[in-house]
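Reopening this one. Same input as before:
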Amino acid sequence: MDKQNPSAPPCAQPRIPRGITHINVRHTTRFTVIGNHLAQHPELSGLAIGLAVHIQSLPTGARADIKTLAARFPEGETRIAAALRELEAHGYLTRTRERLPSGRVVTHTVSYNRPRDADAQDRRPTTPQPKPAPTLTSAPDPTPAPTPAPVRPDSAEVPPSPTPDPHPKNPLPTPERHTHHSAAHHTATTLLASLHRDDPRLLLAERDVRRLAPAVTAWLDRGAAPEAVRRTLTASLPEAPLRHPAGFLAHRLTELLPPPLPTAPATRAAVRPLPLQNCDGCDRAFRSPEPGRRCRGCRSDQSDLLEAA
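Same output, byte for byte:
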């Protein structure tokens, strides 16, 4: 046998990939877009992330209450309720209890594919950072550099202002009339500013009162009494903490807006009765357009005499 050569290079070992390997297939039907801010959320539990993905995949109008989700998944109602509270705390879900005209109380669930605080952060203007000065690595040029022209103050760069969203998610109803100095607008601002007396969680900032006042004025324009508006805004409040009371009230003012008052029918002019006249035959009073006529009884007696003649 030949002698072994210890200096020979070893055989190449196959490379074992480390970590996860993705095999992605492009979906064309039956798919839901989920953001990494939810799929990789550092604070949400796995059950909360899974429930959020499931709820976002449901069609509008599908039931997403605790009993329905507990019947769908192996977890019990207690764990599912805790996961839903996680999603509410991080802005992915809101649940409000509403009373139907029949008296039954139902829970209205609103799912957000982005946390509500993320929209406000994205629209926040950012300050441009100054560019670092270039570093010279070559030898300096003996030719003096031209002196830069002075920059006028009006030609300085100004960061662009954020563009308002032309299609807001929940546009608030606007009043059909009234100005900011009308009695209805004053009633609306007073009602909103005093809601914290019914529930301390409904304490609103001054800017929120100014923003919601036109929506309350629209309710008043449609015949709703101020006390009825107060009961609608404060009835069946959720037990969970209200992180955004102004958004909660805006949702109720938009979704529960009563219909406009029907147009009142034109009233017919009252018909005045004929005046009273005295009968020329029996001197009894009867109604007739002109004097000098006989009543019905005298006219029938006179006609009987003429037939007998």
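So the earlier flakiness isn't reproducible anymore. For the record, Residues 206-221 form the longest helix (16 residues).
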